[in-house]
């Protein structure tokens, strides 16, 4: 069958990454309209899991669990449209190189990536296959590039400047429109059967069996997390979004957002935003509906304010490239942080002299979640009290956080370290004052056992040369 005007390509390859949804996905709709056949794939790159000098692995078991729930959910939705999500583990360029050579797709689709590590394979493939059409779009942003009042290269140095420009150019954030999921999809190519075209590429459910993700295991994990409704998947994200705005929490968000714990004190949309099962446009549309029903106030605006911070960091990552990961950040400011193994281990394991920090780290290690205020507190401690290389903390957050987002994570760490977008050039939090403000009754510390591993006033048991530290004895 010849392609029609709307179906300009015989075969398209759709590469899912951090856009794991069908609803409000303009790139997916475009691919469905343009292609006679579509092959859907997700590739787990070794760069996303292998360790480095800071961490043993860049993805914890809890993050992998959340990711697999999301992939299974997406696969189920695709099956309902007579499609399949194929999964592979390995270098994206090697896997896609073989697929392109074998299937000769006319077009390859992928959501825009903002960090250099994720951009690199896309650029390599474009160079390797100049006769293939590569199509990318910003599907994880509020605004498209042509809607911004500035180019990415002209992104302001501070968030406040960016916010003022955006709000002047696009003041009606509550009028966001959500794009419906495609009602049908083109079939997979006939060259692909359910066994996959090569050993590395298999349907998600076959990989699930290979990796041992049984229904028994999933049920056990979900039972253990009943108090933390963080299950991966587009339907779960939509249900949580709906549940949040059925409460009055949005009208009090600004007053509660700094709480260390508690249901609906923050929106908690971030894990689903991070892997793309929820789009920022969907959040804004739900927020706009809430405001029309219940009124707009400073708290409802502050939800948009936080989404703008996320938007700013996406553009920040594109503009600054590899500087996002460098010790001196975007400022080239001299930094004195070191990599002191014992101090880093105490921070990770919650055995510092600071009970509030310990409690936050224990929560993060156990659940993959931590409030924004908690993240600022532990980051400040690592940088200023423990005097460590801030990148060690950023890598550990990457490993642990269910809502890990490369731009927001690294941009925020640079902000606290004073080598990023903060005009004050760093934030040093008074830990005693933070405890008095946010945990005066010591309930959070007790819940997460912040006193359990504390070591008095001693940070080090050995010095930098690995000699025992002598602690003076008072007389």
Q: What would you say this structure looks like, in words?
A:
This protein has a six-stranded mixed β-sheet with strand order 5-4-1-2-3-6, sandwiched between helices. It has 475 residues and is an alpha/beta fold. The protein is built from 19 helices and six strands. α3 packs parallel to α4 (116-128) and α16 runs antiparallel to α17. It is globular, with a radius of gyration of 23 Å. The chain starts with 8 loop residues before the first strand and ends in a 28-residue tail after the last helix. β1, α1 and β2 form a beta-alpha-beta unit. The protein has helices at residues 26-34, 61-80, 92-103, 116-128, 159-169, 204-211, 215-224, 234-245, 253-256, 270-275, 280-294, 298-320, 341-349, 355-367, 372-385, 390-400, 406-417, 431-438, 443-447, and strands at residues 9-16, 35-44, 85-89, 107-111, 133-137, 202-203. Helices cover 45% and strands 7% of the residues.
Topology:
Elements: E1 9-16, H1 26-34, E2 35-44, H2 61-80, E3 85-89, H3 92-103, E4 107-111, H4 116-128, E5 133-137, H5 159-169, E6 202-203, H6 204-211, H7 215-224, H8 234-245, H9 253-256, H10 270-275, H11 280-294, H12 298-320, H13 341-349, H14 355-367, H15 372-385, H16 390-400, H17 406-417, H18 431-438, H19 443-447
Parallel strand pairs: 1-2, 1-4, 2-3, 4-5
Antiparallel strand pairs: 3-6
Query: Structural class of the secondary structure composition?
Result: alpha/beta
Q: Quick one: biggest sheet?
A: 6 strands, mixed
- Rg over alpha carbons: 23 Å
Tell me, what's the shape?
globular
What is the H-and-E element order? Answer: EHEHEHEHEHEHHHHHHHHHHHHHH
Strand content: 5-15%
- Count, helices: 19
The helical percent reads 40-55%
Unreliable runs: 1-5, 214-227, 471-475
Order of strands in the sheet with the most strands?
5-4-1-2-3-6
Average of per-residue pLDDT values: 89
> What's the end-to-end separation, in Å?
93 Å
Oligomeric description of these chains: single chain
Q: How many strands appear in the DSSP assignment?
A: 6
């Amino acid at each position: 069958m010849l392609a029609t005007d709307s179906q300009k390509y015989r075969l398209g390859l759709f590469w899912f990454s951090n856009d794991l949804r069908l609803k409000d996905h303009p790139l997916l709709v475009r691919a469905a309209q343009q292609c006679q056949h579509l092959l859907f794939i997700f590739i787990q790159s070794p760069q996303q899991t292998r360790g480095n000098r800071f961490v043993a692995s860049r993805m914890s078991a809890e993050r992998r669990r959340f990711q697999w729930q999301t992939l299974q959910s997406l696969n189920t939705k695709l099956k309902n449209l007579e499609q399949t999500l194929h999964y592979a583990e390995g270098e994206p360029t090697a896997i896609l190189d073989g697929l392109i050579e074998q299937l000769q797709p006319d077009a390859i689709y992928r959501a825009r990536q903002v960090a250099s590590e994720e951009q690199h394979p896309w650029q390599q493939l474009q160079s390797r296959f100049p006769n293939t059409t590569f199509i990318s779009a910003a599907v994880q942003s509020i605004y498209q590039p042509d809607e911004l009042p500035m180019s990415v290269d002209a992104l302001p140095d501070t968030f406040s400047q960016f916010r003022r420009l955006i709000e002047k150019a696009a003041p009606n954030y509550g009028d966001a429109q959500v794009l419906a999921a495609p009602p049908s999809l083109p079939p997979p190519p006939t060259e692909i059967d359910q066994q996959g075209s090569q050993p590395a590429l298999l349907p998600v459910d076959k990989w699930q069996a290979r990796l041992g993700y049984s229904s028994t295991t999933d049920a056990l994990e979900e039972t253990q997390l009943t108090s933390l409704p963080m299950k991966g998947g587009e339907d779960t994200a939509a249900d949580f979004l709906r549940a949040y705005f059925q409460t009055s929490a949005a009208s009090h968000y600004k007053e509660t957002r700094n709480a260390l714990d508690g249901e609906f004190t923050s929106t908690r949309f971030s894990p689903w935003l991070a892997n793309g099962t929820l789009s920022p446009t969907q959040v804004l549309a739900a927020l706009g509906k809430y405001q029309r029903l219940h009124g707009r106030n400073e708290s409802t605006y502050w939800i948009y304010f936080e989404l703008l911070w996320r938007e700013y960091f996406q553009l920040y990552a594109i503009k600054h490239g590899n500087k996002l990961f460098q010790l001196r950040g975007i400022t080239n400011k001299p930094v004195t942080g070191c990599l002191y193994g014992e101090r880093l281990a105490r921070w990770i394991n919650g055995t510092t002299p600071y009970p509030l920090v310990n409690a936050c780290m224990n929560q993060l290690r156990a659940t993959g979640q931590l409030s924004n205020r908690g993240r600022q507190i532990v980051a400040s401690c690592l940088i200023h009290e423990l005097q460590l290389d801030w990148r060690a903390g950023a890598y550990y957050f990457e490993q642990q956080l269910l809502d890990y987002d490369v731009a927001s994570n690294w941009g925020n760490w640079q902000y606290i370290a004073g080598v990023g977008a903060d005009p004050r050039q760093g934030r040093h939090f008074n830990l005693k004052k933070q405890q008095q403000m946010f945990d005066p009754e010591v309930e959070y510390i007790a819940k997460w056992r912040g006193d359990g591993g504390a070591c008095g006033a001693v940070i080090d048991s050995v010095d930098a040369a690995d000699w025992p530290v002598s602690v003076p004895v008072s007389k």
